[in-house]
Fold:
Amino acid sequence: MADFAINAVGLTKVFRDFWNRPKARAVNEIDFSVRPGEVVGLLGPNGSGKSTTVKMILGLLYPTAGSLSVLGRSPRAVETKREIGYLPEESYLYKYLTAEETLDFFGSLFNLSPGERRNRIDQLLDMVGMAHARRRRVGEFSKGMARRIGLAQAMINDPSLLILDEPTSGLDPLGCREVKDLITELKKRGKTVLITSHLLSDVEDICDRVIILYGGCVRAQGSLNELLTVSDSTRIVTPSLSPEVTEKVLAILRENLHGESFRLDHPRRTLEEFFLDVIARAKQESVETSGALGGGIASYLRNQSDKESAVLQSLIAEPEPAKPKAPQEDAAALAARLRREEEARVANLTQDAAPGQPDKDEAARRAEAEALKEADEKLSDLLKNR
Amino acid sequence: MTSFTAIVKLTLRNALRSHIFQLLLGLLLLCALLLPTTVSGSGEGARAYIQVALKYSLGAVSFILAISTVWIASLVMTQDVESYQLHMVVSKPVSRIRIFLAKYLSVVLLHLVLLLVAGAAIYLGVLWRFHQGGFSQEERSRIESEVLVGRRVFYPEPPDVKRLAQEAVVQQLEEMRKSGRGQLKGNAAEMEAEILKGISEDMLRQRAEVLFRKYGEWRFRNLPRGGGEPIYLRYRLYVGKVDTEAQRHTVGLWAGSLETRKETPEGADGAATPAAEEEFVRNWVPLTREPEELYAGRFHEKRMRPAIIDRDGDVVLRYINLDGARDKVYFQAVDGPLLMMKVTGFTGNFLRALLVILLLEVVYAGISCAAAAALSMPTAIFTVLSYMFLGSVAPLILTTRQLADPAKHLGYWIGKAAMQVVVPLQEFEISQKIADGELVEWSYLGDLTFSYFILRALPLILLGCWLYWRRELGLVVRK
Structure:
């Protein structure tokens, strides 16, 4: 297996006019590599050279200078394409074919046997939630439905390198989640995925590394941790704190930060998480829908070791003895216990005053009390706005 | 299903959906089924009726299929390039050469089916008209032997004009010396060439002319003996001048040289002399009892017995001009006289004709695919149609003789250069052959295949293949 799934050195693409005069330098001596098993995001504004780079990887454009290898071979080699799955930005499907016929056609381009094709088509249509529309023509589909079929055709050959251009474009949040889960699953299987997208939240959720292009050049590349970590601030997440404990925390921060600004608020879920929660609850309540209903990931795409171990576990595991139930606490006792625990935690964080230290002046004690009162008021405001 | 078969199937499906294809299919069926009904006739017209029905419908079908091939081939090659659907295909492990060949094959297959459908309609239509046309027995017999048949054509042996002209030149120069006119003035070699050319042209002209009460003679060689099939003499003559409009009736007599065995002399005792070598004598026999009146400017056919072929497979014929107005009679080389002998029936000959049309489709499908591999659809269609047009007119440019005019001189050389690369549509014209009951020879098919497919079309197809292979599909602007 090649060291890199994709390796570009000094990659350049200059578009020329009819008279062979240079017209635009779309990609300008970029160096990047994608290792096997990575999920890499290729980002950049419009005109930055993302699509040009992807087209060169697929052999649709030829580099003007530099070298580019895909899976250790030239991008134009036919054998290279056997391991690649490609989802373009827009679905360039044959509108007069049905969903089933589309997948059958693309499956036959890999010389898959008829039985294997049928098997994979069934699984893929279930996976992308299009089984109910298998006999409908692609031309009748909405954009999102066509994207799902596009994704299915990209997976028909179980590729080791998947190139997805705006994979979640046109998909509802459920569909986006399914795509992300799929990519995560593929990553577990050691597949390599290259994603280009304008939806940075999606990229952030699933990519290991990102490459940011601008003006045909690589402006930044690296892992998300490296690039996004703000090292000069700290975030602590705790369960909900009582006002007293909160006050104590504020005091500690004020004392130690010496006038620097800080913020204390409640963390937010992402809208996606909330949405998925709502839908999951609706599903449990068996609410009907006529839209796409995604199924599980196709079995031929799933991690084999996970499947095997799950099967083994089910065969050999003995039923665990039932755990004794904890005695029921009433609400008041519960609140008191929690408060005690919080106080103990805060106490651990604070320093005890040294023995024999003289008391502070009366004025200083009054100033402190006023500051506390002010902080209390602010906290009350915050709690009211929740 | 392999990737090749899948692409063929998809391309066929795409082509069938095209409105242009559906229109052309309708036109094709119209020509095959309805065009012959516009023709009517009986008697001499009965034969002509069948001939015209065959000629027009087959000719129209051939032309429509040629145009359809150009259009559909350009469509299937360019449509998925410009809609980016091909991006999805080339990102799969399928070589571009394979895609090109699959699309080429699918265009040929589609037009093969169309050809078979149209051909079957014409064939059945002609046979139906033959059987239901209410023709007399004589007319039916004539149509069966002269139209609904495949007859091999034998052309007369051309005279060795060059040798004869050179002999004439030598003789003329000898006479000049004897008469004391001395040597030729100026450049002797050039003048000798001029004289040779003039004498050659005179000889050819004289061969084509038959003066009043004179005869023209034609020798045919290598005819098959012992077949038992009758031989047909086909000819067209002009009286007065070579113009199909201003013709009239004329009178003439055809005679053939018949070889008969010489009678062996008897011995003194009345018995035949032993081991005498057979000797044959040649007698001129008129083909009709009386001189016949015939209308000049039209084709005529005359049936002859196979006995007219001599031992060497030769037939010698003479036409004696007995025109009432004492005018000359002219025979153009392309109009005969020529001899025809049955080789195959109508079905066999008709199938051969369909093969010629299929070859035309294969040639133009390949050239159109090659053009569309690198060009947009309208540009590719325009380029190929221009190529077809140039192929049609190039032979006409070559007939220009007034080379003194620089423009025509240039035109001549352009025509000559074009003839080396173009495929003239008229070379594939076989509807007249079929209508005349002329055999479509395998050698003719082979010649077309070699001259026009292998030498002319194939290099263009390979060029198109190469262009398709190296084309940067990412540069195409999506439509």
